[in-house]
Write a structure and sequence with these properties.
single chain; alpha/beta; Rossmann fold
């Protein structure tokens, strides 16, 4: 889910923190990538006749093709990607995960009963779940491409953000705005300016400039994000992004807001969860040892990657040959 309304809040109050840059300007940069986001996108968008792409044996290969071309694009621009896989989610995210599972089941039931082709496509996207085999496929792909990856012991965007904060990577690529809540110095996502049609252009968010313009510290920014609505904590009725910013600018913390004379209905559930939520946005602070990273490195295997893509995944021979020549 990310942080509700954060993109628009930043656009309105800190426009100069947002830049739209072509990927080639990031040559020689090292970028941590929130893998699950792009895995989902590949499963949703890399299709054939409404179904996943499959090889001759019926194995799903949409995610392999999607992430291969994504990685190839980054390597072609001279960018070094490091893919971060999600580990076990925190228990505080349990309610959010249950809600997603329930929604997926509801979509599946609706999908099976509808005769509207377009509605079926929309509903089907809501049923997609990441499987272990998809993760294993991508690890094999990255190993053959000589691309590094880390399987985090927590949420990927949190781990990637800390790697960026420590200077191990230059930026984090994701579509999840809560990456900023973890204090990620530089966050890259798909271009949010729909008037720009060039596919190699991305949007870059500067966290230092954001909190400077919002007149908040990192801790205050976290409290504001919790009030906006996050995956770890329920929301407060009638408190959206605008009021969240106003309250934290005025009271500096959720505790001060709770103890103020503001007429807001704060549930016991919120009071019981917001402190733990706050801690989760700093879950890897001081916990990552750059000298002992659980990083998987490999050597580029040109023959291996060609055989895997063409023979195992049944991808087009000429397209694979042309793309490999770009690396």
């Amino acid at each position: 889910m990310g942080i509700k309304g954060l993109t628009q809040l930043v656009k309105k109050n800190s426009p100069e923190s947002i830049q739209h840059n072509a990927l080639y300007t990031m040559k020689d940069k090292r970028i941590a990538i929130d893998t699950s986001i792009f895995l989902y996108k590949s499963l949703m968008n890399v299709r054939s006749k409404g179904d996943y792409l499959r090889n001759n044996e019926g194995k799903v290969v949409s995610h392999i093709q999607g992430l291969y071309y994504k990685t190839n694009q980054l390597l072609t621009f001279g960018i070094t990607p490091i893919y971060i896989f999600d580990g076990k989610p925190p228990v505080e995210k349990g309610d959010c995960i249950k809600a997603r599972v329930k929604k997926a089941e509801e979509n599946k039931v609706k999908m099976e009963s509808t005769t509207d082709t377009e509605e079926k496509k929309v509903l089907e996207k809501g049923t997609i779940r990441i499987k272990k085999e998809y993760i294993d496929d991508l690890k094999n792909l990255f190993s053959l491409m000589g691309v590094s990856y880390i399987h985090a012991d927590g949420e990927a965007e949190a781990y990637a953000s800390e790697l960026c904060r420590l200077g191990f990577v230059d930026a984090v690529m994701t579509e999840d705005m809560d990456t900023l809540s973890y204090g990620c110095p530089l966050m890259i996502r798909g271009c949010i300016d729909k008037s720009i049609k060039r596919p190699e252009v991305v949007t870059v968010f500067d966290f230092k400039k954001i909190i400077e313009d919002l007149k908040l510290t990192h801790d205050e920014f976290i409290d504001m994000c919790i009030l906006c609505g996050c995956d770890y904590c329920p929301t407060i009725p009638k408190v959206g992004p605008i009021r969240a910013l106003k309250y934290i600018q005025k009271y500096k913390s959720i505790e001060n807001l709770i103890n103020s004379e503001e007429k807001i209905d704060i549930s016991d559930e919120f009071k019981n969860k917001y402190i733990a939520s706050r801690g989760l946005f700093k879950v890897f602070d001081g916990k990552i040892d750059l000298n002992n990273l659980p990083i998987n490195n490999s050597v580029y295997d040109v023959d291996g990657i060609y055989k895997y893509l063409v023979n195992t995944c049944n991808m087009n021979t000429k397209r694979v040959q042309n793309s490999l020549q770009k690396i």
